[in-house]
Amino acid sequence: MVFTLTLIGCSANGIAVGAYIFTYAENETEQDEDILKFLPALEGKTFKYPVFVDVEYKGLASLGKSQLSSLIKRYMDILDQKGFFPGWYS
Q: In a 10 Å sphere around its CB, with 0-12 CB exposed, 13-18 middle and 19+ buried, how is residue 58 labelled?
């Protein structure tokens, strides 16, 4: 999985930008792998919209409400700690 974000020209042309990560992570170990690959793509960038955690992957439903909510909250806490405004998309 490789993440790249190109914002060149967006701000200059009045285009508001956000970002998202589509995750398949079913546990904290997989989540850590996602985050370690995703955060470098965000470094040095400023967004008008949130950085969303996208949990549309149907396989995540098998985790149950409590476990999935915990993983989403953890993602959002990490993004918040890194100075991004997190959002949740599903």
A: exposed
**Which pTM value belongs to this model?**
0.84
**Residues whose CB is less than 8 angstroms from the CB of residue 14 and which lie 6 or more positions away in sequence, other chains included:** none
Token pair of 82, please?
A: 């890194």
CB distance 86 to 76 below 8 Å: yes
- Pairing mode, strands 51-54 and 86-89: parallel
69-89 pLDDT tens trace: 999 999 999 999 999 999 999
**Is residue 71 exposed (0-12), middle (13-18) or buried (19+ Cβ within 10 Å)?**
buried
Contact present, 17 and 7 (Cβ < 8 Å): yes
Backbone angles phi, psi at 46, to 5 degrees: -120, 135
